[in-house]
Amino acid sequence: MTRLSVSRRLRRTPFSEGVEAAGVTAYTVYNHMLLPTVFRSLEEDYRHLKSAVQVWDVACERQVELRGPDAGRLMQIITPRDLRAMMPGQCCYIPVVDETGGMLNDPVAVKLAEDRWWISLADSDLLYWIKALANGYRLEVLVDEPDVSPLAVQGPHADDLVAAVFGDQVRDIRRFRFRQIDFRGRSLAVARTGYSKQGGFEIYVEGGDLGMPLWSALMEAGAPWDVRAGCPNTIERIEGGLLSYGNDMTDDNTPHECGLGRFCNTVTAIGCIGRDALLRVEKEGPVKQIRAISIGGDRVPPCDRFWPLRAGDAVVGRVSSAIWSPDAGTTVAIGMVRMTHWAEGTELTVETHDGPRPALVREAFWA
Amino acid sequence: MTRLSVSRRLRRTPFSEGVEAAGVTAYTVYNHMLLPTVFRSLEEDYRHLKSAVQVWDVACERQVELRGPDAGRLMQIITPRDLRAMMPGQCCYIPVVDETGGMLNDPVAVKLAEDRWWISLADSDLLYWIKALANGYRLEVLVDEPDVSPLAVQGPHADDLVAAVFGDQVRDIRRFRFRQIDFRGRSLAVARTGYSKQGGFEIYVEGGDLGMPLWSALMEAGAPWDVRAGCPNTIERIEGGLLSYGNDMTDDNTPHECGLGRFCNTVTAIGCIGRDALLRVEKEGPVKQIRAISIGGDRVPPCDRFWPLRAGDAVVGRVSSAIWSPDAGTTVAIGMVRMTHWAEGTELTVETHDGPRPALVREAFWA
């Protein structure tokens, strides 16, 4: 077990009080902020997420806000996804790349108005990248981190719970759309998004003072569906093939290597800073790519470093996330594999730091 | 006690194996990397640091490398410290500011050659800021994170230990200077810098494969001086008034508020992106500033959030770091106080999350 020393630098959230009262047992650090990782146990949390409903403190999905006449132009500079057709009220998962096409983050963009956007971040200080671009390109846009903290409601009963607090209109919100809905006299964006395959919502809590009132309202209203405090669950996310920036991809990787080519419209994304590099990648295709991997043998230790994937003596890739899945009945893993060995059914060896295990390349993730 | 969930995203270092073998008992996360915080106990580590010598895994001080004809120009863009007189072989503590003069990081700049620099980072992704500026200003410079991991040797016997491994020439290295010295046939920068008041060196280990060989060489050579694995010590750093980015200062603060005005040559730092804003600050002076604060009464809980400083009913500042110091015989703290109440001897109340305590503004830190 590893102990974490707390300090102001690892920021608490507007929901921390609720998280502690609910008996959080472990954290990670994400965007310089505490992110709960376990309440009862990974497997018990997993079962509950798949059968009931959970409220998640994901305030660590910090926002970058862009406001002003050049906000839309700056959005297109940072991503190869073509955003021209995006309307206010829409959310959009966007790869963000540097000038070489390397991934800098994989946030969700939230379009509030033609001249106002939020970017809901994965774990890197993308604020610095965007602020400097605004400055270097002399754009007319304000860029900052607003006091906005997402609270997620995930699980099969997410609709019931969010409807109980925000009204039945939330049932009509489509995937990757949001509506502004009143809570205690303040308007909050309620989006049908989230970092699980169970479905649900993310509520963008504008103003930290609303954090605990909303947390408590959800926990109280959720009794009929056995609501609990939860958090992104490592087992469920790997089963579902949800990538994690910093784990499964870094700035070494292009979106295409990460299997995110479908979110790139490189030809039409005119203005994107990585466009030249990615046009080249698109033409030639990536030489390695993310794959679902199942690992046999004994349970593996926590995957806290890249584990090489071997075919005989040759290293042909690496595993970046892995954990035992009770439902899959195997160790589920996310790997990056060279094209020579990425075909479904390829048998490899994964070198965990606890010894080798047999590994199998799968066609798809489990959920 | 707070548990930390490990994952690839919280990167291990070239020295992690040595740190674990030495019995690390707690970590923090810094630049997406593990930073040890405690070995035996904070107080035992503190006593030892002040009397013997320690080897610290500070690989989390990640480097940004700038190479190319515009490297020097880009360096001056990011800081209000005038770097014109800086020579290769010098290190320089530099406030890094945005266009409003807000602190983005407070790294040590290492000048390797006229066209090649390292920036040894505090906890923020400054790489993103610098890469985007290079792009936006169309500068001829390569910007990336090299495979360089600092290892610190700190304590009263640091000279003896580093001389035992690198030779007596290290004794002649002056403060904030470095020399390239061979270790196992490779040239490493050995700098007289470090995040303690006890003196010592930081060795820039270029190539992760050299990490454990150097760690082991230092631990073996250090037996006569009771060398131990150590880490930046919270008690010693607060006593000494060493600020911590993200704890004691954020991008809300100017260098002047942080008491770093002496590192700003705003008039002559032509090209600095925050120059206009800081010229204004320099003229008017900051309205709040970092102060040493002693806190009376019972021991305080870990300072994991800002604690308001009050004068009667008015909030006049906040404490951002605080811990009991055995040598000072009081709780030592770092605060930011409004000018109306920052005079030495001012009596205030600090609202810890465990209740109020008397607080006293001091003239200076303890060491």
How would you characterize the overall build of this protein?
The structure is a homodimer of 367-residue chains. The first copy, chain A, is α+β, with helices and mostly antiparallel strands. Chain A folds into 3 domains: 16-61 and 147-238, Probable tRNA modification gtpase trme, domain 1 (Gyrase A, domain 2), CATH 3.30.1360; 63-144, Aminomethyltransferase beta-barrel domains (Alpha-Beta Plaits), CATH 3.30.70.1400; 287-367, Elongation Factor Tu (Ef-tu), domain 3 (Beta Barrel). Chain A has 8 helices and 22 strands. A 6-stranded mixed sheet of chain A has the order 13-14-15-12-4-16, with helices on both faces. Chain A has a 6-stranded antiparallel beta barrel with strand order 17-20-19-18-21-22. The radius of gyration of chain A is 21 Å and the shape is globular. The model of chain A has no long low-confidence stretch (mean pLDDT 97). β1 of chain A pairs antiparallel with β1 of chain B, so a sheet runs across the interface.
